[in-house]
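Work Package 4 report. The design task specified in the project plan requires that, given a folded chain encoded as structure tokens, an amino acid be chosen for each position. We show below one input record used in the internal validation round.
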């Protein structure tokens, strides 16, 4: 059977890994796909680097548009990244009747609805396993392996950089700024780490998983996003003392009145498996009504782990290229005309538990004032600790864990508590999830 000809756009870290894995495992891949798969042309602005990787085994050019217009290319692999030229190239490839494999989570989260509609119209596939959690096969699991289930919730550590920072802060008692510098030196964080530390990268990935899990359109702009840059080693330590660990989680939950879609630091009981995922590793919990909880764990980034997902997509596309488009697995798992218009809940309507740390004057009546505010707003306290003041200090830390309550009530309570004359600073609020049902 005629080999599959692949055009590769971008041969950086993941592109180089893809080229290497495809070459090294070519025999296994051919046996699985039923035909040979070969990268025949590579487009990259850095021709010197590209030629050093390809070493004469494929044509190297600096014109990506020429690749998507090449009639001999069957599948385009887009590894350029970003939402500018990558979008133009992807839509052009689709218009030319080519299948596309991509690792571009930002592009899919923001423009996936348009891209999938174009692919549906042309009868081609857009495969994107590598866009979420690197080599962890979460997309295929949500689309196919868990297809019998009504997905109830998804919760994941889906940004390795943030997880590395939180792990180091906990283990070494280091400050956020010091660990961020270390992450940059090790190559885990970019010079501008905003997407990682402020939760944007995780929100891109969560948007994609939620769309597949619940059968809804991509709605990145509706996701609540809060990063880890304001976390202190003090709160990480207090959480540990209370039996919790702080992780940056992406959480999507199906509720009676809508879908929760949120990324933020979260206290998780240390006895949960996901609380013990450390360093740059990723882990995702999925709760289905039939299967219960499942957990997917592995490397969320890196040349070959991500290349593993890219090549797996190439094999999938090769297997189903001749299948009638109506009989392929839909891009978002549900038939395109059956996607739900259920609303994404505003953050104020989200229900969870909370960790509250207050810096207050060490004098009688303070606790009564604070608990009265909470009681008036229907917020009950699950646990409370008052730390001993340092010698000579007139201020103490009080840590409270609440039962589940509505976020807007907590916001109102925090405003009232901060207005009390006995409260010396802003209230620190971190959400808490038990992840047990």
């Amino acid at each position: 059977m005629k080999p599959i000809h692949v055009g590769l756009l971008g041969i950086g870290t993941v592109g180089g890994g893809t080229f290497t894995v495809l070459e090294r495992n070519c025999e296994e891949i051919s046996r699985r796909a039923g035909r040979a798969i070969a990268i025949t042309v590579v487009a990259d602005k850095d021709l010197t680097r590209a030629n050093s990787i390809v070493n004469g085994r494929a044509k190297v050019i600096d014109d990506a548009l020429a690749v998507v217009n090449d009639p001999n290319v069957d599948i385009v692999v887009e590894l350029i990244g970003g939402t500018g030229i990558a979008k133009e190239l992807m839509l052009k490839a689709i218009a030319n009747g080519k299948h596309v494999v991509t690792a571009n989570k930002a592009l899919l989260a923001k423009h996936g609805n348009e891209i999938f509609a174009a692919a549906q119209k042309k009868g081609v596939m857009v495969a994107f396993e590598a866009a979420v959690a690197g080599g962890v096969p979460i997309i295929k699991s949500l689309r196919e392996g868990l297809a019998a289930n009504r997905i109830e919730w998804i919760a994941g550590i889906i940004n390795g950089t943030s997880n590395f920072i939180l792990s180091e802060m906990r283990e070494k008692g280091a400050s956020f700024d010091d660990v961020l510098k270390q992450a940059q030196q090790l190559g885990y964080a970019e010079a501008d780490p905003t997407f990682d530390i402020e939760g944007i990268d995780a929100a891109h990935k969560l948007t994609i998983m939620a769309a597949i899990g619940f059968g809804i359109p991509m709605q990145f702009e509706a996701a609540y996003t809060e990063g880890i840059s304001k976390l202190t080693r003090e709160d990480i330590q207090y959480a540990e003392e209370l039996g919790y660990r702080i992780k940056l989680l992406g959480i999507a939950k199906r509720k009676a009145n809508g879908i929760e879609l949120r990324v933020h630091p979260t206290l998780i009981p240390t006895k949960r498996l996901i609380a013990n995922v450390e360093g740059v590793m990723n882990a995702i919990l999925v709760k289905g009504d039939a299967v219960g909880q499942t957990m997917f764990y592995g490397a969320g980034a890196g040349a070959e782990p991500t290349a593993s997902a890219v090549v797996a997509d190439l094999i999938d596309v090769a297997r189903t290229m001749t299948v009638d488009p109506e009989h392929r697995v839909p891009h978002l798992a549900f038939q395109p005309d059956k996607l739900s218009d259920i609303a994404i809940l505003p953050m104020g309507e989200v229900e969870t538990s909370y960790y509250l740390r207050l810096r207050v004057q060490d004098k009688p009546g303070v606790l009564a004032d604070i608990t009265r505010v909470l009681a008036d707003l229907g917020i009950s306290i699950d646990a409370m600790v008052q730390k001993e003041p340092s010698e000579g200090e007139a201020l103490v830390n009080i840590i409270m864990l609440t039962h589940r309550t509505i976020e807007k009530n907590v916001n109102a309570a925090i405003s009232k508590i901060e207005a009390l004359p006995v409260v010396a600073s802003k209230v620190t609020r971190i959400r808490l999830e038990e992840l047990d049902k």
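The first strand starts at residue 4 and ends at 9. Validation will be extended to a larger panel in the next phase.
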